[in-house]
Amino acid sequence: MFNFNVLAGYSPSYLRKTKKILLNLARERYPRVTLDELREAQNYSLTFIIARDPFERLLSAYRDKMVFALPYSFHDKLGRSIVRNYRKKPSLAARAANTKFPSFPEFVHWLLDQVKRGSFIDMHFVAATSFCTPCLIRFDMILKFESLAEDQLYLIEKTGLKRVIAPVWRNMGKGRKTH
């Protein structure tokens, strides 16, 4: 996302300092296109998609949106609701040590219930194919998130952008421990 923003005109120094979410910055400069516009662009563009293991994606979303939710945010309130509805009532002693966010099993239980009910589910918690239609586009390259460090080098070389952008990794993840 860093390099997309550089190509969109943001300076690398601004991108390193900003507290804004890089995806939101990119969306300001790259408006959503129609499927017809996308297909037309394929005629003169190198197309690629970055795929991620679905379980890695789910675990990452759980950590980012539940474990490290901003106080009073939508995800913080959702997490508290999951705890209220899916956590067994702990003893008074256990309650003091209890976390305010759902455990991963509680989160998965809630998610499966949402799927069974056909309820709306936040885009971070569902398969990418639920909100994106990668099968409608013929991609020239499929990069893997798990090997993105190497894959982006190849993409930069293949596109001839080696002198314009450099590989940059800015993971906004906030921790490693999963409960």
Q: What is the overall pLDDT average?
A: 86
Instruction: Give the N-terminus to C-terminus distance in angstroms.
Output: 29 Å
Helix run count: 9
In spatial order, strands of the major sheet run 1-2
Number of separate structural domains: 1
* Rg from alpha-carbon coordinates: 20 Å
Residue share in helix: 40-55%
Q: Any descriptors?
A:
179 residues; mainly alpha; 4% strand; transmembrane helix; sulfotransferase activity; transferase
Write the layout of secondary structure elements.
Layout lengths: L1 H6 L4 H6 L4 H8 L5 H8 L5 E4 L2 H14 L6 H13 L5 H6 L6 H14 L23 E4 L3 H12 L20
Parallel strand pairs: 1-2
Question: How is this structure best summarized?
Answer:
Pfam families: Sulfotransfer_2. GO terms for molecular function: sulfotransferase activity. It is built from nine helices and two strands; from the N terminus they run ααααβααααβα.
